[in-house]
Automatic annotation (TrEMBL):
Broad class of the protein's primary localization: periplasm
Gene Ontology MF term list: thiamine binding; thiamine pyrophosphate binding
A Pfam family annotated for this UniProt entry: SBP_bac_8
Transmembrane segments: none
Domain of life: Bacteria
Protein name, per record: ABC transporter substrate-binding protein
Subcellular location: Periplasm
GO biological process, one term: thiamine transport
Organism: Devosia epidermidihirudinis
Cited CDD domains: PBP2_polyamine_RpCGA009
GO cellular component: outer membrane-bounded periplasmic space
Organism ancestry: Bacteria, Pseudomonadati, Pseudomonadota, Alphaproteobacteria, Hyphomicrobiales
Family (UniProt): Belongs to the bacterial solute-binding protein 1 family.
Keywords assigned by UniProt, alphabetized: Periplasm, Signal, Transport
Length: 350
């Protein structure tokens, strides 16, 4: 009898634990990002604050974009995915709609008060952004003699030295830079004239000593002096400057580079996912603190009001800097991604 009672007691405890476990799980949200320092900054400034306010625990998952979308496609046949929120690029807003729920800023109560215009793109919401910009070594080009446009990047006589461009993964920014250098007005860049862009790239190709493949590499080649100028991410360039490296960059002609939140169609916690995205858009002070740890802009347009005039002038969200950046036609990028990427690969292999 004792054994029976003991087993029954254990069984009841196990059932209670299972019920409690399910209750806890119902208050969880799984978010996929690139991991590393970005995930740490999100945890510090947004995830923990959201959990404190709502009681919903956030489970972070790290994944590269290629692996992420492969798993999303594999999970699409399941009643419920393992993830709720994933990372998207703007062209994924058009290319991956089969897997994502539509999101309107009209349905996010914080959007009208806090968000930049265009934050919601239909199936994804802006998370962080910067630009692929022209950066240079200030020892090689001191103030007053520094390049200011991509036309200067192509001018190897006035601005001598080895250069760097990213590989085919960043084909859209490379082709935009080439067209700017060739004198195409920003408003006429899209749809991209690929023949004209590749012809311009042929001119600079002999002077490109590095076609970088990772963001870390883009920093290292400037840090070591392997190149004197490069097209690179503004966040990475800002980090080098913060570290005291002799680096500067210009927002002029910078090609917008945006990371986004998207919610899977078969996400198990859609309501919590939308609640988090709405929470993320608010709280300007948190956005400022996040950007100080991780030098990217966010969609909160009021955050820059909390900065000093000097700091504001250096940020991509400053109106003067926004005005000189290029916003790609993301739909065109999505529709032409495979063809342009392949053409870039073939160009680099020749």
């Amino acid at each position: 009898m004792k054994r029976f009672i003991r087993q029954t007691t254990i069984g009841a405890a196990a059932c209670l634990a299972m019920i409690a476990s399910h209750a806890v799980q119902a208050e969880q949200l799984v978010i996929v990002t690139s991991g590393g320092v970005f995930e740490e900054a999100m945890q510090k400034h947004f995830y923990s604050a959201f959990t404190a306010e709502t009681g919903i625990d956030i489970i972070p998952v790290a994944s590269g974009l290629g692996a992420q979308w492969a798993k999303v496609q594999a999970m699409a046949t399941l009643p419920e995915a393992e993830w709720d929120i994933v990372t998207a690029l703007p062209h994924d807003n058009f290319a991956m709609t089969d897997y994502l729920i539509p999101i309107s800023c009209d349905d996010l109560s914080n959007a009208a008060e806090f968000a930049f215009e265009g934050t919601c793109m239909g199936h994804a919401v802006t998370r962080t952004w910067g630009a692929n910009v022209l950066a240079w070594n200030t020892d090689a080009f001191p103030e007053g003699k520094a390049p200011q446009t991509f036309a200067d990047f192509w001018d190897v006589e006035a601005f001598p030295g080895p250069r760097a461009l990213p590989d085919a993964s960043y084909w859209s920014s490379v082709l935009v830079a080439a067209l700017i250098a060739d004198g195409v007005p920003p408003e006429d860049i899209f749809p991209i004239d690929a023949d004209r862009a590749f012809a311009k790239l042929e001119e600079i190709k002999p002077h490109i000593s590095v076609w970088w493949t990772t963001a870390d590499q883009s920093q290292n080649i400037l840090r070591t002096g392997e190149v004197v100028m490069s097209l690179m991410g503004s966040g990475r360039a800002s980090t080098l400057i913060k570290e005291g490296e002799p680096v500067a960059f210009t927002w002029k002609g910078g090609v917008k580079d945006i990371g986004m939140w998207a919610v899977l169609k078969n996400a198990p916690h859609k309501e919590a996912a939308l609640k988090f995205i709405n929470f993320f858009l608010a709280n300007p002070a948190i956005h400022v603190a996040f950007s100080q740890d991780f030098p990217f802009e966010t969609p909160n347009r009021l955050a820059t009001d909390l900065l000093s005039p000097e700091e504001r002038a250096s940020r991509g969200g400053d109106p003067a800097n926004l005005a000189v950046q290029i916003t790609p036609d993301w739909k065109w990028v999505a529709e032409n991604d495979a063809e342009m990427r392949q053409r870039m690969i073939e160009f680099l292999s020749q």
